[in-house]
Amino acid sequence: MAAPRTDTGVIVGRFQIHELHEAHRAIIESVLAQHRKVIMFLGVSATLVTKHNPLDFVARKEMILQAFPQLTVLALPDMPSDKDWSKALDQRIREVAPVGGVMLYGGRDSFISCYFGDFPTQELEQRVFVSGTEVRKNVSSEVKSTPDFRAGVIYAAYNQYDKVYPTVDVAIVRDDTVLLGKKPNQAKYRFIGGFADPRDDSYEQSATREALEETGAEVGDVRYLGSAKIDDWRYASESDKIMTLFFMAKYVFGRIQPQDDISELRFFRFAELQRADIVPEHGVLYDLLKRTIPELGSSTH
Whole-prediction pTM value? Predict the structure, then answer.
């Protein structure tokens, strides 16, 4: 049964797309046909510019009001508790619609199953189904030659928090030697490592994986030595920086062979390895390792 036109209709959604598609328009038009007053709440993520939540509130609000200027569009922050979120939604509704009946609307796979508030809900029948994930994926693969496109990229870059990129580095030890690598076109050596992967379960696993990928070595007894900011030339002029977690691990087995972006590998005896042998950005890691292996660089020859 359609709700009386004197009641308030409420739409809750995310609308994380670059333009409203047919399914979105059908939902909005259906609710507008039943209510004199329609409020739309847009879910606002606690994260910024992610694949699932690339657009901020203002960008989505402007998109919706261009197509449906008669709507009242408000922000609704995400919360870890569905009950707290439901309570906040009810409170926001009554702030703008203090009297009268209210009906909440959602499509398939909408907020309804997570709502524990006081107002009735209604799932709208959908005849058109569009995957927001696929829409975003398709949009992400297209570069447009317009000033607005370039301005949007710049806007997204500036409207997010400065980031620290976590990496791991590992000193692979065999007896009284440590394995170091050299990248193409570099004269000095570096500790084996790379960026942590979201699929890794721990930084220790990241270190083990990087050791295998870059050297072919299986390592064990992975031991955390400390962390440090790395003065990586790629981020010298950026506000984003690299922070690495440094480990020591024992060589177990495997054929040592340069792989990935490593062009040369070499075992250095502890006593022979000098800080001057190491690329400047890894000098701080040499210092961390020397706390554990004091005989580093002790040779006078």
Answer: 0.80
